[in-house]
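Hi F.,

I've been meaning to write this up properly since the lab meeting, where we talked about keeping a consistent format for the predictions we share between groups. The idea is simple: the sequence comes first, exactly as it goes in, then the structure tokens exactly as they come out, then a line or two of notes. No screenshots and no reformatting. I'm using this chain as the first example so we have something concrete to point to.
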Amino acid sequence: MILSIALAIACSGTFATAGEKTSFHANAAGTYAHQVSDSVTIGAKPFGSEDLTAQAFGKKTDLLKYGVLPVLVVIENKRQKTLDLRNLEVNLVGADGRHVSAVAPENLQYLGKRSVKTSVTPVQVRLPKKKNPLLSPELVTRAFAAKMLPPGDSASGFFYFEATPETGDKLYINGLHDTPNGQEIMYFEFPIDDKP
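Output, unedited:
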């Protein structure tokens, strides 16, 4: 039941939580930095400023302060077959070729308990003892959760990276498969714009 709710939220592209007066809405994939391949469009936008993270997660969850870069990903399936996204692999690739894998939202709370690798130097991040902002429920409810994507449908959500935004960052995505034959769709790799 929880998975179906998360899937419904991710597919709709609209995110709202209890008590919020406004909701966050993802746009069409083509409105962000994107790539089209085999009738699949993937768009992405890094939320690399405090204003952007406040729009998506509220003012109290300043992810960048804790070394976490959220990247919104929108996938549109214009194929005749359902896409299987269960083995989706998403990496942030720096201009110098470094790869950073996405961190599961439930694991974000542990990042502040060790050194965070940033683009410049490792820094020790100390989280507040009373309330950990990386435990915010919005981080889970707004994460990319779709496992299957029917023809003509789209899904959106955030992937979280232990990184700081840099000029020349790219997103690398693979692991999309047709169902039921399991044929893999070509990988996607494209530059993402870090401007608000």
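Notes:
The helical segments are 2-12, 50-57, 137-141.
The two ends are 35 Å apart (CA to CA).

If this format works for you, I'll send the rest the same way.

G.
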